[in-house]
Amino acid sequence: MQTKVRTEKMFIAGEWVSGKETFNVKNPQNSQVIAKVPLASSKDMLKAIETAQDVFQHLSSWPAHERIKVLNGAADYIEGNHETYAKTIALEGSKTINEARGEVKRAVQTIRISAEEVRRIRGETINFDQREGSENRTGYHYRFPIGVIGAITPFNDPLNLVAHKVGPALAAGNPVVVKPASATPLSALLLAHAFDFAGVPKGFLSVVPGAGKDIGEPLVTHPAVKMISFTGGLDAGKKIAHQAGLKKVGMELGSNSPVIVLKDACMAEAVANSVSGAFSAAGQNCIGVQRILVETPVYHEFVSSFTERTKELQTGDKMSEWTDIGPMINEKEARRVEDWVQEAVYEGAVIETGGIRNGAFYEPTVLTNVSSDSKIYKEEVFGPVVLIEAVKDLQEAVKRSNEVNYGLQAGIFTKNIDNAFYAVHHLHAGGVMVNDSSDYRIDEMPFGGVKGSGLGREGVRHAINEMTEPKVVCFKLS
User: Fold this and answer.
1) Which pTM was predicted?
2) Which CATH architecture fits 257-443?
3) Which of 129, 180, 177 is nearest to 159 (CA)?
4) Average pLDDT of 12-36?
5) Contact (CB, 8 A) for 391 and 293
6) What pLDDT digit, counting tens, does each position of 454-467 carry?
7) Where are the beta strands (DSSP E) in 271-363?
8) Chain centroid to CA 297: how far?
9) Does 3.40.605.10 match the CATH number of domain 6-253+454-473?
10) Which residues have a catalytic role annotated?
11) DSSP string, 37-90
């Protein structure tokens, strides 16, 4: 069935405006055009940034109670239009309708948490009299908003990852300019509708869709932009960090997440959670399970159970309630994953199940006997492929886990508390999930990684800390 093509406007400095040119947003499942979206120019981006800077400088204050009202109002709007948001996420991206509904729920939570955290942006008193000669001084420090935040967001969570940048920025009192992924700009524009409805001050939010080559560099390099918050690939992150110069950067750059399964683990739980963690959102998930390291005594049992569970997954129409896995974001990405798998097979890997591509669909794939020199072993596959290997003990599993240049999250399944704490202290990652796969997150926890997985931390309160600075106040008393 042909989907009606929507014509969208972009949200610049509090106004809904058309562009001189447009680009097509397609449903990756069938390549049908679902919307025409303005192709913003560098001039559009500059207007968004400069208006944001002007409003920030001249607004005498944006009281906490008003920020709370706007954030809760936006959350209410999204909640009241839940299915519209879910269908948009599913149509423009890779998620099934059930996965999309879950993302909408999380986005509402992210924005509500942002409203709650407005109340907790606090400083503290300072005991200046700890220094001899300062007995007549008293004071404190408080946190202040740093200014315009530039947000660059990916396709895989097109609503909630935008909310994770917009919510904390506005909670802290900062204007924010969003450059959404060109594959999935509709969800970000719908988020702007929610904040516009809720009464966000004019100029405090812009969503500017378009080509990175035209509008990305102005956003990253403009001196009025005081922080860049980026979620995406490592190579793009390196380029942005180089361009940004002397300003704050927060970066979540993906991973190659390991899960360790020890011989004392609950096998059914380890299999179920790891299958879900590997293949949700068609594997296009920065904390998705990519490598599973299984202790030798239970290796063959685990591979057999994991493979059988994977074969039960239903790949197909994203809008069906019965579908587990939809397409990848486009056929080009599916071909890339296909090439990586074929390269690994050439180098000795065995396909236990999957390994078949049909357009943008790539079947959930389980590989064993993968060489540690293979690209798919060392890099982020960002697709529905998981590698399973045998290890002799926990120490080898941790060593192998740490060999790659990523460290976002990891998981371990064990009933032994000593083993759990060994993994916690020795895995090089921003988060270790015990008796869960790497694919577990709540929106309040500090989220980020080490090595090539990024800089700084997201999670609402932690993002607010990144988007504010402390100011010291000291009174010398007579």
Assistant:
1) 0.96
2) 3-Layer(aba) Sandwich (3.40)
3) 180
4) 96
5) yes
6) 999 999 999 999 99
7) 289-295, 350-353, 357-358, 361-362
8) 36
9) yes
10) 252, 286
11) EE---HHHHHHHHHHHHHHHHH-----HHHHHHHHHHHHHHHHHTHHHHHHHHH
